[in-house]
Amino acid sequence: MKRAVQLIAVFLPVALAADLSAAAAAKPVRVFILAGQSNMEGAGRIQADPNRNGGKGSLEFLVKDAATAARFAPLVDSAGQWRTRDDVWISYLDRKGPLTVGYGARKEAIGPELGFGWVAGDAFDEPVVLIKCAWGGKSLAVDFRPPSAGMPPYSLGEKTDAAIAQDPGIIGKYYREVLALTKAALAGIKELVPGSDGSYVLSGFGWHQGWNDRINDKFNAEYERNMACFIRDMRKDLGAPALPFVIAETGMNGPGETHPRALSLMKAQAAVAEHAEFKGNVAFVGTRAFWRPAEESPSGQGYHWNSNAETYYLIGEAMGEAMLRLAAAGAADKVEEGEMAGYLLVPNEKVPESYDAGFSMYVAAWPLVQQYPGNRFQTGLFGTWMFARYDEPKPLEKMYSDIEGGLGWWRDTRFATETPKFIMGGVARDFVEWANGPGAGKGRSWERPQGKYGVAQLSPWLLWPMDGLNLKQGTCGELFGYGYLPLPLAEAKSTTAGKNVPTGDQCWTLFLNTANFKGPVAFFTPYFWSRPTVDEPRLAGMFLDARPSQPNRALQMETQYVPAVQSVDAKGETYARIARTFFPRGPGDDSVVVHRVTSYSRKALWDGVKAWFEGGPPAGGAIDSAGACVHSFPGRGGATWRIYTPATAKEKRAPVAWSSFATPMALDANTFGYRWNYGPAAKDDSREGPLVTLPEYYRLATNDKQKAEWTPVRAEDVPAETGLVRYRFQRSRDEPPEPYVTPDDAASCWKKPGPAAGPFQVELGDGSVVTYYWYRFADQPALLNADLTDQEREAMQARVEKLHRSWRKDRDYLAPPAIGKLADIDPALIVAPPPGLEAGYVPIATRQAAKE
Fold it and tell me: What is the DSSP-derived secondary structure letter of residue 390?
């Protein structure tokens, strides 16, 4: 993919100018026409006005605000100046030149051309020219009316009818203007594009218009027919019978639009793309999701999208991406969508079985893929599976139960971004339930919570969202320290749910070590593990409520889905492409992914805390190194990543030739990572930090063992007829996610005895807003559903109050890493108890929803 660079024509060195000219002359220019009315002109404000909503919605605000900076960073250079592309040019009425900001209705504004131009410029090796033809207040029914639509079959009003009688050219005047301006611009390409010989390929037509038709019943009623005529006529008059068309929805007012004419017009726009004759060559782009309210925008002009620059950029970007899909349609029958999946294996040396009281480790957190591809994307980063340790054979084969969460992305993540999240991931017997954190578990229904009450909040300083624990947006290669150790917060019981089945006393507690939070967070209630034994008494005492942990665990990165595509060339060779995939890159250009994997005995924490709770001296909470054993890495590793389509039989799924570009290694005795072959792999200096880009393109070849495998190749070595180079992996544009909500019944455990303070709200970096309350520890819903008597809960309350008074969030519990930098949790999740609730109270999320 090309990268845009700033072009400062006055100071461009002669040699560089010659190189650019030669490159431009080597290939015909790709031309795209962008036409419409005032919203194609564009009213997106460039400069921030601090007196209007603090500058929100301006382009200047977008490149600086933490929530949007990563996406809009390419628009500015290292000095903060607006970039000018050296590969995209624009001709817009009386303005022309290299593409940059300022080609909106005024020089102080942008329209869809900016987002469209960046998408097209990044996609094509050839120079790109945008011909923009737009004027405010124009209708398709009159001003842009195409010839084949004929004269309007209704009166336009006495005055207008008289004017048309005098000058029939009023009808369709701006249709003809589009043609005239386009032909003039095409004739001037040699002068517009440095080094061009004037040759071009007419590559697409983008349309954003409709306001003047949606405010008139008669115009509205014939919009679908007129638009179809417009496409046919424009193709005929431009001599491009298959010219791709993209229609951008007139979606002002966003998803909440209710006006019948507005809904009718948008329906008509979408319907045009569904005409049989337009299948595969006309696309409709929904825009309502790009609406931003006036309080987040530079103005309140709803008909001009509130002058919001983000909206205009996203409309153009979406139009550009849709255009690329149409451009690749000729090869679409060749391209098969599929996936890359498998494991990266990390051998680590065994430790004595006596270290059976939990583990901790540091793992790298980074953006695995360039663009979040939607909720099919499921992959963890490096993690482990902690099982119970058995001294004798298990009584049943079907006893799968463990703690297997970690950093990553999951199909049920509702507010995903490129930055990973952390879940706890406890699995009750054979997945009958699972618990991902306080208030988060299997399924959607609170009628059958299936693990959503399986985790109790312990920390008074860290709020846990239902969607997973957020890291600070832009985290890139920093180390996230976590582990599970049992705390004696509960007493062992001889009965469970009224049956003569025991429940153990182990509260497996998540400990974190990050840059802005350290210490215990939450724990699995013992009942979460023992509950399945009520119906299967012979399994009593066999799960993590009572059993020690297995100290020697598998360590892997489990990838269930990274988008991929395949295609076959004219010679029968099979090629594949994966979505752009990254690994972190350290100071020496290697990747550190796992550090200091440690297993513990009860001496590490349990014994000291148990003695404290029974009247002994206070336990500080720091891990006793005498009870810790650090695993070493032998420096080996394996990979089972495979690329395949859904139709590929399991035994035919060929592996990726991982060793051709990645070498697993022990960077020191306690640190595992990869050394890269920079040729197939590439260095990438992203805004977040240094990354390694894995090879994107592969050819199916036969290796030395006569086995099929995917071998990395360069993009230029992939035959054009495969369509892979032009294929676009799309950023997810899902509908706004459903909110997480908790029961609101006055008789529920959420209301009786209920919270002590709230509600409070925090806005997270993933675009969601979490509502939470402060509950007395023993009165939180998880403990009210943990098969505990009032006396048992009060005993836990007393122990937790001791912890809250003695254990702080700003000192080490887990031993700190010997290398690297710690990751930050989303700062919005670091909270403080209200006055008077400092000990014995915890924050509990009750709702998580998209920011309105």
Answer: -
* Both tokens assigned to 270: 């979408």
Residue with tokens 């005239």: 180
| The two structure tokens encoding residue 367 | 């953006």
pLDDT tens string 461-478: 999 999 999 999 999 999
Residue 426 burial by Cβ neighbours in a 10 Å radius (0-12, 13-18, 19+): buried
Residue 30, pLDDT score: 92
Per the structure block, which two tokens stand in for 3? Answer: 């990268």
Work out the pLDDT band at 333, boundaries 50, 70, 90: low
Spatial separation of the C-alpha atoms in residues 87 and 72, rounded to whole Å: 19
Task: State the amino acid at position 667 in one-letter form.
Answer: L
Q: Are 704 and 309 in contact (CB under 8 A)?
A: no
Tokens of 168: 């029939």
Region 40-67 average pLDDT: 93
Strand (E) or helix (H) holding 683: strand 682-685
Q: Which amino acid is at 148?
A: S
For residues 94, 97, 98, 101, the Cα torsion angle rounded to the nearest 10 degrees is: -30
At 527, is the secondary structure helix, strand, or coil? Answer: helix
pTM of the model: 0.69
Say how many Å lie between the first and final Cα of the chain, rounded: 35
Q: Which residues contact 491 (CB under 8 A, 6 or more apart)?
A: 505, 792, 795
Torsion of the alpha carbons at 706, 710, 711 and 712, rounded to the nearest 10: 180
Whether the predicted pLDDT of 1 surpasses 70? no
Torsion sign across C-alpha atoms 208, 212, 215, 220: negative
State residue 168 phi and psi, 5-degree precision.
-60, -15
Quote the CA–CA distance of 513 and 518 in Å, as a whole number: 5
CA 508/CA 112 separation, integer angstroms: 53
847: its two tokens: 């709702």
Beta carbons of 503 and 541 less than 8 angstroms apart? no
Q: What is the pLDDT of residues 655-697, one digit of tens each?
A: 999 999 999 999 999 999 999 999 999 998 887 889 999 999 9
Q: How far apart are the C-alpha atoms of 715 and 695, rounded to whole Å?
A: 9
What is the rounded CA–CA span in Å between residue 94 and residue 245? 25
pLDDT-based confidence at 274, cuts 50/70/90?
very high
Please give the Cα distance from 816 to 717 (Å, whole number): 47
Let me know: does 146 contact 226? Beta carbons within 8 Å.
yes
Quote the pLDDT of residue 638.
94
CA 85 to chain centre: 27
* CB burial string 604-628: b at 16+ within 10 A, e below: bbbbbbbebbeeeeebebbbbeebb
Q: β-strand 88-92 against 455-457: which pairing, if any?
A: unpaired
